[in-house]
Amino acid sequence: MNKVVTGEKFRPKARTWNSFIDAAVYVRQRQSNLTAKTPRQDTKSGVVLVRNSTGEDLAQFAVVALGALIITPADNEPEFREKLPVFEAELVSDENLDEVFVILQKPLKENEVGVALLSGVTPVKINIESEDHKFAEVTADGLKTSSNGTLRVLWKEPKEGENKWAVVHLGASGAGDTYDGYFKAVNSSDENSQKVKITSGYALINDTLFSVIDNSLTDDDDNTFAAELEITGTAYIYLQATYNTDTETINEPTIEQSANFPLPEENMFKGLIAVVKWDGENAKILNPTQQHYGVMYGIILGAC
Fold it and tell me: Which residues 6+ apart lie within 8 Å of 37 measured at CB?
């Protein structure tokens, strides 16, 4: 076959044109084979594969923690690129509560590989601590409802009790554990208590970092909460700090509450932490309302 000169009329024979097509297809296939023998499996469905290495058979909708990745690029890069990732499944315990957990979608016998849900909606058995809870969290004893947690509870069986059916959303936007502010409001663990705790945190006030523990300035990070307040109605809980104009220093910050929204005053910083309401009819504190990032920083008027 001869090359065509620029400007020359070109009308290829059918056999010649088909040879071009066959060659193009062959090159494309060769290029594809350089990266993968088969197309990459879909990993956008919110599922992963797990191998049951727990030493026992697992039931459908069992909650397990993700362990080590079985096939890494160092083991077999082509297979790592082509296949869905497969992780070791571990029983949830106190030692791995910080690991990523998944919910099996089918029963899984020991040493077999099966599908687990990493993100999405699924049935599951949970312990219902309160009918008012809208979230659930993983514990060594299984899932239990809570006012904050890593799962959004879309539906659950009525009444409190153990091992009840629920429909939950893993990876739901706005789940309680997404709060990452410097101060967090949590209900007291005492039943029928009118108290709410504010966990320890920090606030940047006029470029100075302050920590509040037990309503006093401290550098002790080991304390678990900054204040415990009794709620009798609607309470606006806020961080307060005053500026001493004589010494040009900021006095020790405190955590306060008021029945109305805290308004700023000259030489005084007031940063809203949470809004908490006491439900007198049902004798309980409703879930605190907080902004996503809570109190992070502030400027005291007149303190420059």
Answer: 78, 82
Other beta carbons less than 10 A from residue 19's beta carbon: 13
CA distance linking residue 256 with residue 242, whole number of Å: 13
What pLDDT is stored for residue 203 in this prediction?
Answer: 65
pTM > 0.70? no
Compute the CA torsion angle 105, 109, 113, 118 (nearest 10 deg): 30
For residue 174, is it left (φ>0), alpha (ψ between -120 and 50) or beta? left
* Tokens coding 257: 């509450």
CA 60 to chain centre: 24
pLDDT value of residue 253: 78
The encoded tokens of residue 11 equal: 């009308």
Counts for the chain of helices (H) and strands (E), in that order: 2, 22
Give the tens place of pLDDT for each residue, 230-246: 888 899 988 888 888 88
Query: What's CA 16's distance to the chain center, in Å?
Result: 60
DSSP readout, 95-133? GGTTS-EEEESS-B-TT-EEEEESSEEEEEEEEES-TT-
Across 42-51, 79-88, 187-196, the highest mean pLDDT is recorded for 79-88
What does the pLDDT read at residue 284?
Answer: 77
Residues 6+ apart with CB under 8 A from 256: 237, 238, 239, 240, 262
DSSP states of 45-74: SSEEEEEE-SSS-B-TT-EEEEEEESS-HH
Q: What is the Cα–Cα distance from 187 to 197, expressed in whole angstroms?
A: 6
Q: CA triplet 284, 289, 293: central angle to 5 degrees?
A: 145
